Amino acid sequence: MPETIVEIKKELDDRIGQPVLVKAQAGRKRVATHHGVLSKTYPAIFIVHLNDGQGSLDRISYSYTDILTHNISLAFE
Fold first, then answer.
1. Is there a contact between 26 and 73 (Cβ–Cβ < 8 Å)?
2. pTM score, two decimals?
3. Rounded CA gap, 38 and 6, in Å?
């Protein structure tokens, strides 16, 4: 991933609508994994729509600093 918040936002802007795998730190030794679609980007956050397989649609938001500080990692499919 890019090295600055502006570069991260620009790269995510180009990938809106693409499937993504999000791995996030959920605690001291836990990692939460989510499959979804990058939905929207805003000046400070971005939104990923998650599908849990039961027909319900959830949203989760992250800040660009989460990527910069390696609290989450994104893998586009």
1. no
2. 0.85
3. 17
32-50 b/e (C-beta count within 10 Å ≥ 16 → b): eebebbbbebeeeebbbeb
Query: Tokens 């910069």 sit at which residue?
Result: 68
- The strand order across the sheet containing 72-76 reads 57-63, 45-51, 31-41, 19-25, 72-76
Question: How many residues can be counted in the chain?
Answer: 77
pLDDT at residue 57, as a whole number: 66
Which among 8, 10, 21 is positioned nearest to 66, based on CA atoms? 8
Burial, 3: exposed, middle or buried (Cβ in 10 Å; 0-12, 13-18, 19+)?
A: exposed
pLDDT tens per residue across span 14-57: 999 999 999 998 888 899 898 999 999 999 999 999 976 665 66
| 29/38 Cα distance (integer angstroms) | 26
